[in-house]
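Handout, tutorial session.
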Amino acid sequence: MNLLLTASYINILTYFTLLTYAKDDTAVERFVGFVDVHDTTGAVIAETIWNFVDDLGLDAMLIRGQGYDGASNMSGYFRGIAAQIQSMNPLALYTHCCCSIWSL
């Protein structure tokens, strides 16, 4: 099962996490929890998300996609969450989350 990881702001130091996966040729999206972080840097949030996925008993190396808003700590090319996770798992490609454009 390949995973798509999506995270968004709830407040400054809490993110929610959704996992999207394929089941019987259908995309399934599940809310899996709120994640508190102690810093808003890409490295700290990426490590928190990576550990959260591990705590769920999932293999983070199966992540195939990431979707975040366009903030530099989320999508920054060198130090954003997307870059940090992709450095650990090159197959976890980043796509800008279009819902963030509409503030959904």
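The second record follows below. Compare its token runs with those of the first.
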Amino acid sequence: MNKIKQGNNILETPDLEAAIEDYSQGGLTSDQAKAKLEQFGGNSFIIEKTKGWKSFCKQFINPFSFILIFASTLSAYMGEYTDTIVIMSIVLLNSCLSFVQEFRSGKAAKNSPS
């Protein structure tokens, strides 16, 4: 018999089938849909509006950037300024690409039908 974990509960297959109704054939009735809407709320999400420069600065706060910035600092300390410039260029390019991707996805989410 199959067991499925749901939160802190483990449901066996017959219990699971009893716990959730099968709507695959006819779907929800209007009353069932209204009850689910009242119980769980609508399918919506909140879009937080942030300033562009804050979003850009947040791109530097990740382990990849920290490692590269440390490597760049170490290269500068050792006098390898060419390596320092290359590494910092990679950090900047990574942050710019991440910012553009986040901006476009935010724009797409804003324009999507609710």
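Points raised in discussion: Residues 60 and 95 are 6 Å apart (CA to CA).
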